[in-house]
Predict the 3D structure of the following.
Amino acid sequence: MFAYEFMRNAFWAATFIAITCGVVGVYVVARNFSFLAHTLSEIGFAGAAFAILMGLKPLTGMLIFALLGSIGVGELSMQTEQKESSISAISAFFVGLGILFLSLSSSASSYATNILFGSIIGVSRSSVYQLVGLSVVVLLIIFAIQRPLNYDSFDHIGAAAHHINTGFVGVVFLVALAMAVSIGSQVVGSMLVFVLLTMPSSTARYLGKSIPSMLAWSVGLALLGVWAGLCLGYITNWPVTFFISVIEVTAYLLVYFTQARKKRA
């Protein structure tokens, strides 16, 4: 399997993306941003479609749209009482916009599949460098604000008591989230990127007793999902995204029902 360059590229890219999504996902779940992450993936879908229409790389458009969308949607969700309704409206608008851009493009069908469901097997060496670089940037952002981010995400009242600028921390995290959504979409696609951002971290909340342990469990489960998914995809020639989704959801359900049984015992 590793004799093929495309598989080596896929494993390198998927490894860094899984680490990034595993780390960011812990804070996504803690801050109840799962729905927001899903919305950003759909905004990114519109950006990727626009980039294709303009003759640019899909990742470039996805990054630009997701970064701009993260600030706008984040501010809107904090300022309006009907947060979910507002985000749903924005999500629907950008999905429609993405479909319009793809319909205007001459290569709609093939690119639509790659954007929606990922194409990690076909990643080139230059794309690997780009994805690894972006992953490192996201991780550096998270570690740079980790102390105030921990307070704000897990103890918002304590953060206010310690005079932490929660607004600034929130904006910086939204930028990191937008980047994580964009690079995570390269593995599982824009429609399923929330699987990598929410499932490992949701499972980790049952297994970890501290923030470092939750981070470790989340990263480990994300790596398990992408590595096993790539291997099974290579063996069966089935979509890698399918295996990643099944593995992460199965792990979550197993841990959830195990913990529920322990509570009843």
Remarks:
- The chain has a mean pLDDT of 86.
- The two ends are 45 Å apart (CA to CA).
- DSSP finds twelve helices and no strands in the chain.
